[in-house]
Amino acid sequence: MKIVQKALAFVGLLSLCALFIYALQDAPTDENFERKLINDYNVYAIQVPSDLNFAGEPMPLKNPDILERMDRELLVNTYWQSNGLLMFKRAKKYFPIIEPILKKHGIPDDFKYLAVIESGLTNAVSPAGARGVWQIMPATARENGLEVNDNVDERYNLEKSTEIACKYLLKSKENLGSWTLAAAAYNAGNAGISSRLKEQNVTSYYDLLLGEETGRYIFRIVALKEILKNPTKYGFNFREKDLYSNIPTYKVEVDTSVSDFTKFAENFGINYKILKIHNPWLRESKLNNKSRKQYLIDIPKEGYYFKTP
């Protein structure tokens, strides 16, 4: 019996020694950190799919210049993991609003990825003065019937701004002849793309020598399209519940001025912050509305927000 107890004690001592040695090996020394970094983190070259296209228009990937530029954008966007995950989350929230408007106007679904690279699906503000998810300039907005001033800026209304983007893209397609050139013109302008085509005596975006931003534009769109359509292929892992969802709302008609949006919001059981989240186009805490224009204000349905105790 004593021999068995001694044997068990010896085995136990060996186990403790082994654990101690393993702990020393796993300690955060410079050598061990480097070993774990090499073993636990890997960066892989990405195979560029041979059948990539934008709006059904094939990319000439047999051209080495085109292949390298596409490879760059796939690499940059695959390994910018935090940004990629945010794109998946926001796409779940906002694509259902954008997609039916594109479809209504006969614009290819691929153009929703243009909105992704324009703003990251946020109400971004550019140094040049563009605003909203579709990054529309003030003059373009006003020319197409949107109200833009300090009190109301409808470029921040996703439905209305998507409508304006569609009008612009349809006009560009008519002028330039392809969806790829129409997309490029969204960045560089119709006149800009048209003049570059004439100067360089070419007819395709992929044959143009352009500045950095416009030269990367289509490649970035296609890269985001490829990644967002194939998350696991590019190493993105998430569950449906990890994505953002759009909060259901109903619309309230307002055709008068509103002196205090805090009180207005409280009438619907929400606070001012929640009202602004759903109506970012309301730029001030009041609505002037001297012309008695009819506005539609989105109010979240009951039960989706809870009051802080």
TrEMBL record:
Signal among keywords: yes
Membrane-spanning ranges: none
Signal peptide: 1-23
Residue ranges of every copy of the Transglycosylase SLT domain listed in the record: 98-201
Gene3D superfamilies assigned to the protein according to its UniProt record, in alphabetical order: 1.10.530.10
Keyword set includes ATP-binding: no
SUPFAM superfamilies the UniProt entry points to: Lysozyme-like (SSF53955)
InterPro entries for the chain: Lysozyme-like_dom_sf (IPR023346), Transglycosylase_SLT_dom_1 (IPR008258)
Keywords from the UniProt entry: Signal
Pfam family, one: SLT
Domain of life: Bacteria
Similarity comment: family membership: Belongs to the transglycosylase Slt family.
Name this protein carries in UniProt: Murein transglycosylase
Lineage: Bacteria, Pseudomonadati, Bacteroidota, Flavobacteriia, Flavobacteriales
